[in-house]
Amino acid sequence: MKKSPKKRGTVRRLRYIALFFVLAAAFMQAGWSYYADKDYVAVRVEEGDTIWKLASSVAEPGSDIRSQVYAIVEANHLSHSEDIRPGQILQIPVEKGTAAAAKAKFSH
Fold first, then answer.
1. Whole domain around residue 63: which residue ranges?
2. What range(s) does the LysM domain occupy (predicted)?
3. pLDDT one-digit tens code per residue, 18-49
4. 45 and 7 belong to one structural domain
């Protein structure tokens, strides 16, 4: 016996909805795993500090500093045009296991 067009449409819609939720869960998991392999170092901004300067302090040699700048901006919910101020505390994302070395770089 053939399924009615209405029933086929309902089944198709349910498949699309299920696919949407599976894809949404996969993307959420991918985002969480990015932050799971990071440690964070709290840094007090000093006079003359810039996000670029802070990023270059912890960036891996030969890496693109812009990606570290972006990570700092995202971790601290800053807008890209927002200035940082002396005394402000920023969370600096660093590779897992390198937080102690990064802290030493920031102790003035």
1. 38-106
2. 41-92
3. 888 888 887 776 655 455 678 899 999 999 99
4. no
